[in-house]
Amino acid sequence: MDYLLRRLVRAGTRRGLRGEHWAWFALAAAAYLLRRARSRDRPVVYSGTVRAGDRLVVSLRAPGGEPAERPG
């Protein structure tokens, strides 16, 4: 779904700037807003740069801060 919305934003913006019908800009704006609304459910927990030689350890914790149970 994100791929489709991203393509609609790019195509609508490109065609709108090229002078085609104004509805392409409206389509791009609607797809952009829908994409933003969908991504609010998944907040970014960590954002950073990982360089060569760095380690990134990922651990799962339950909402209360206790370690999550492993399935199986």
Q: How would you sum up the global shape?
A: elongated
Approximate helicity band:
40-55%
Structural class: mainly alpha
Along the chain, the helix and strand elements come as HH
Radius of gyration: 19 Å
Number of helices: 2
What portion of the residues fall into strands of 2 or more residues? under 5%
Sheet with most strands: none
N- to C-terminal distance: 31 Å
Topology, number of strands: 0
Low-pLDDT residue intervals, each spanning 5 or more residues: none
Q: Provide the residue-averaged pLDDT.
A: 81
Could you describe the 3D structure shown?
The protein has a domain at 2-39. Helix 1 (2-17) runs antiparallel to helix 2. The model has no long low-confidence stretch (mean pLDDT 81). It is elongated and about 55 Å long. The protein is built from 2 helices and no strands. The two termini are 31 Å apart. By secondary structure, it is mostly helical. The chain has helices at residues 2-17, 23-39.
List keywords for this structure.
mainly alpha; 46% helix; 2 helices; single chain; 0% strand; elongated; 72 residues
Secondary structure layout:
Elements: H1 2-17, H2 23-39
Helix pairs in contact: 1-2
Summarize the structure.
This protein has helices spanning 2-17, 23-39. The protein has 72 residues and is an all-alpha fold. α1 (2-17) packs antiparallel against α2 (23-39).
